[in-house]
TrEMBL record:
Keywords: Metal-binding, Zinc, Zinc-finger
Keyword Coiled coil: no
Source organism of the structure: Coemansia spiralis
Protein name: CCHC-type domain-containing protein
Residues spanning the membrane: none
PANTHER family listed in its UniProt record: ZINC FINGER CCHC DOMAIN-CONTAINING PROTEIN 9, ZINC FINGER CCHC DOMAIN-CONTAINING PROTEIN 9 ZCCHC9
Molecular function terms, GO-annotated: nucleic acid binding; zinc ion binding
Length: 189
């Protein structure tokens, strides 16, 4: 009888192990699908085609990839360069294929930093990202402060408060309009 109990424990452990393995396989499959979807939706800065990035571009020539655009070193990238600057003498533009500037600063590039089109949602420029827009970095911006009324909760939405005020104004206008003009009553015999 003891062998039956240990046998059932072994089958439960085996089932649990199979279940955990199946979960891991499904999670791995989901991860692979997410990566494939992300790669499918990415836009190559080299040829501006969807479905691959610059490092996997079939039209890419190996010039200019993996080097520092400031000093030309192949030991590090521009991000880790010790002598940062605003010029890129070793960069090759993906749009016009000339050296000395990036595609985002190219005169022939209408889309700028936005390969799918569009631009900064604040000023409309294609030369910078939304996070780098100067109007958003303005520290002198005005702060909007809401006012709580006595019958209002702290989590009341401003939209609902404004709607309630509009409704109260309408009711007041109806009451005052009714007092001014009495309706004519027609009585027929």
């Amino acid at each position: 009888m003891r062998t039956g109990v240990s046998g059932s424990n072994e089958t439960e452990n085996a089932k649990r192990q199979r279940s955990e393995n199946a979960k891991k396989k499904r999670a791995e499959k989901r991860r692979e699908n997410r990566q494939a979807e992300k790669e499918k939706n990415s836009v190559c800065f080299q040829c501006r085609q969807k479905g691959h990035s610059v490092k996997n571009c079939p039209n890419a020539d190996s010039t200019g990839t993996g080097i520092c655009y400031h000093c030309g070193s192949e030991e590090h990238t521009t991000k880790q360069c010790a002598k940062p600057g605003s010029t890129f003498p070793y960069a090759t533009c993906y749009v016009c294929k000339e050296r000395g500037h990036l595609a985002s600063m190219c005169q022939k590039n209408e889309k700028g930093l936005y390969p799918n089109g569009g631009g900064c949602k604040y000023c409309g420029s294609t030369k910078h990202l939304v996070k780098d827009c100067k109007p958003t970095k303005n520290n002198n911006a005005e702060a909007t402060v809401g006012v709580l009324e006595q019958n209002q909760g702290g989590d009341d939405d401003d939209v609902f408060v404004a709607l309630r005020r509009q409704q109260e104004d309408k009711e007041k206008n109806k009451a005052t309009a009714g007092a001014r003009k009495p309706k004519k009553v027609v009585v027929s015999f």
